[in-house]
Design a protein that fits this description.
Blueprint: H1 8-16, E1 21-24, E2 30-34, H2 52-60, H3 68-77
Antiparallel strand pairs: 1-2
């Protein structure tokens, strides 16, 4: 991981922020996000919300299927 040392003024601004902060260049383009160390959320492993029987039913179903590309194309046209 790369580390960047920030000056005291930036440290103060980041400490005063409430939650996640977008870091932008002078033109307003987002360079990245700052997540305060105490705000890091650790995702816990989750079990599927459907059981094996439902998975099999869906695999054997004649219902129409849509690829990720199809869904993204549809969303772009909205």
């Amino acid at each position: 991981m790369t580390q960047i040392v920030v000056d005291l003024a930036m440290q103060d601004r980041l400490r005063q922020a409430d939650g996640i902060v977008d870091l932008c260049d002078a033109a307003g383009h987002v360079l990245g996000r700052f997540v305060p160390a105490g705000d890091v959320i650790v995702a816990e492993p989750r079990e599927p919300q459907i059981d094996e029987q439902e998975i099999r039913r869906r695999e054997l179903s004649a219902e129409p299927r849509h690829s990720t590309a199809d869904v993204l194309d549809h969303l772009r046209r909205l």
